[in-house]
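Duplicate of #3305? Posting structure anyway:
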């Protein structure tokens, strides 16, 4: 996987490549990340990348010329010119796990990091093949969003985590992950490790039982419960078994029952 990141702050990403997952992936050769300074694609002595918006208003807008030159330069030196060009934008489709899985199937991604008031709309209409948002909020620039995209995609690539089953069990993982005891699009189940007794808080006994079927059922139920309590809208998108539905109905009934007062 190759990431080409177009930004006016290439040094922003230095620490990302010195620690953790992205360092492991770049060192291991699963990922190559190239940073391209947008100012290198300007043609004036001030290296201008932005200008005032037509029609007035606050802020500055990224000019189209440098962005088109940057992407066209990348395509001119690439044997395969149909790779996705992604504009990081609050107006884009929401980055979900399914989108990360979709992008992980590509061989190369170009990420455009906007700044200031925004990017000339002709970039979105005629240059970018996709717009992505990492949430319903506004950042000062697309660099943090680009980092999130690279992290979420990279961890899905073969060999990066070292244990392919790990990412199959993530929250929001695709339904096909159920074969590996994953949550199948649900939030992840709770996890525990040693010590089994910490400040009198006990690890659930079922996890210490060694009974794999009971553990599987417990994890599935806890994932269902956590999703229902925290992100109930996600349940509508998940393929639930008859057993899942019965268990959820029981959970809902219990939650609605009045609590008996102590006498």
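Output from current build:
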């Amino acid at each position: 996987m190759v990431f080409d990141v177009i930004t006016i702050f290439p040094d922003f990403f230095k620490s990302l490549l010195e620690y953790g997952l992205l360092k492991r992936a770049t060192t291991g050769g699963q990922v190559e990340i190239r940073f391209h300074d947008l100012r290198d694609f300007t043609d004036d002595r001030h290296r201008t990348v932005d200008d005032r918006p037509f029609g007035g208003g606050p802020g500055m807008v990224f000019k189209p010329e440098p962005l088109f030159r940057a992407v066209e330069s990348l395509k001119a030196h690439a044997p395969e010119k149909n790779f996705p060009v992604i504009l990081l934008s609050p107006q884009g489709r929401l980055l979900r796990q399914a989108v990360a899985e979709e992008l992980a199937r590509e061989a190369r991604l170009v990420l455009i990091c906007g700044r200031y008031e925004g990017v000339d709309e002709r970039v979105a209409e005629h240059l970018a093949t996709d717009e992505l948002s990492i949430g319903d909020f506004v950042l000062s620039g697309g660099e943090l969003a680009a980092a999130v995209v690279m992290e979420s995609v990279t961890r899905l690539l073969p060999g990066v985590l070292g244990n392919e089953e790990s990412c199959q069990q993530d929250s929001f993982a695709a339904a096909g992950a159920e074969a590996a005891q994953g949550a199948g699009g649900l939030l992840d189940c709770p996890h525990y490790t040693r010590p089994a007794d910490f400040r009198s808080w006990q690890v659930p006994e079922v996890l210490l039982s060694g009974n794999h079927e009971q553990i599987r059922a417990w994890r599935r139920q806890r994932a269902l419960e956590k999703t229902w309590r925290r992100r109930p809208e996600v349940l509508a998108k998940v393929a639930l078994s008859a057993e899942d539905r019965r268990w959820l109905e029981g959970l809902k009934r219990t939650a609605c029952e009045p609590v008996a007062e102590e006498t």
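Confirmed duplicate; merging threads. Residues 2-154 form a domain with the Alpha/beta knot fold (CATH 3.40.1280.10). The first helix runs from residue 20 to 28.
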